[in-house]
Write a structure and sequence with these properties.
The protein has 338 residues and is an alpha/beta fold. 47% of the residues lie in helices and 14% in strands. Residues 22, 139, 178, 261-263, 290-293 line the site of 1,3-dihydroxyacetonephosphate (13P). 1,3-dihydroxyacetonephosphate binds at residues 22, 139, 178, 261-263, 290-293.
């Protein structure tokens, strides 16, 4: 384990005014995204799509500190033969890799899931480091409903996250630890606070037990928001206040950075909430690690047509710039007019 490299990578991932592009959709997820824009999902279209984002020079150089890749993408080459990893590195951004194998039903706990992927992870890490990855991602999924999450589900997921984090660090790869509390339910914001609090407390207890080097980790959490089906809305200021209060109670100061998932929030909503959070004084650098909130606009603009690439790149650059500003607390609604 190279602790200096871990610290350097983690700091780079949360460099001021920059954030992470989560482009690690599995083949199934990217197919769903492509279906929505009537694009066939095959190795070439997936390559073309990701290539134009990684070639968006302004976005990548100024606002994107790191890119999370999927196993297929980390091995792919651009049309001209340049490895996609190289395009990312040339823009000054850090390549990362999603290493979990997705969720499976949690035996004896109907409705709950746990994340698979520890088998053979040690060996795979060696290869990913050689391919250029300097950080990794593992996503645990916790749902809120009547009678869940259970402590058994929270514990099983966090123990896997801790094991994954320890394996990453042995290979000098920074683990993004992502315990996502879903915002899909009909719960109110207080219930989201309560569940996320239980999840983060348990997570840091497990990371502590596994002797994970916190200075070489990044937390990727959900914000504290009301469930989508609750019919309730909270202002960015309310979300920020509760989210920051929660982190103060649960996230050790040794953790260098927090990079949020967007989790189904609208593009501008995710930006406005991040901005409001960054109006608070905090001991961590707090930024974005967005998938949908960065890519929905460029995906739509592209729609699989080469001729649309400049417009799609402009859409991606705009969202990256808006979120870069939000990561400093400098975003304003008026700036949304391109
Ligand atoms: P979303 O921002 O679309 O939630 O994706 C982020 C991510 O990487 C989830 O694991």
């Amino acid at each position: 384990m190279d602790k200096d490299l871990l610290v350097k990578t983690a700091k780079g991932m949360v460099a001021r005014g920059k954030g992470i592009l989560a482009a690690d959709e599995s083949s199934g997820t990217i197919k769903r995204r492509f279906d929505a824009i009537n694009v066939e999902s095959n190795a070439d279209t997936r390559r073309d799509y990701r290539e134009f984002m990684f070639r968006s020079k302004d976005a990548m150089k100024k606002h994107i500190s790191g890119v999370i890749l999927y196993d297929e993408t980390i091995r792919q080459k651009a049309k001209d033969g340049t490895p996609l990893v190289k395009l990312i590195q040339q823009s000054g951004s850090i390549p990362g890799i999603k290493v979990d194998a997705g969720v499976k039903p949690l035996q004896n706990y109907p409705g709950e899931v746990y994340t698979e992927g520890l088998d053979g992870l040690d060996k795979r890490m060696e290869e990913y480091f050689a391919l250029g990855a300097r950080f990794a991602k593992w996503r645990a999924v916790i749902d809120i409903g009547a009678g869940f999450p259970t402590t058994a589900c929270i514990r099983a997921n966090n123990q896997a996250l801790a094991r994954y984090a320890a394996i990453c660090q042995e290979h000098s790869i920074v683990p993004i630890v992502e315990p996502e509390v879903l915002m899909d339910g009909d719960h109110n914001i207080e219930r989201c606070y309560e569940v996320t609090e239980a999840v983060l407390k348990s997570l840091y207890a497990e990371l502590f037990d596994a002797r994970v080097f916190l200075e070489g980790t990044i937390l990727k959490p959900n914000m504290v928001v009301p469930g989508k089906k609750s019919g309730k809305k909270a202002t960015p200021e309310q979300i920020a206040e509760m989210t920051v209060k929660l982190f103060r109670q649960t996230v050790p100061v040794a953790v260098p950075g927090i990079a949020f998932l967007s989790g189904g929030q609208g593009d501008v909503e995710a930006t406005a909430n991040l901005n409001a959070i960054n109006k608070h004084d905090m001991p961590w650098t707090v930024t974005f690690s967005y998938g949908r909130a960065l890519q929905a606009a460029p995906q739509k603009a592209w729609s699989g047509k080469a001729g649309n690439i400049p417009t799609a790149q402009a859409a991606f650059t705009h969202r990256a710039r808006m979120n870069g500003l939000a990561a400093r607390g400098d975003w304003k609604k008026e700036l949304e007019k391109m």
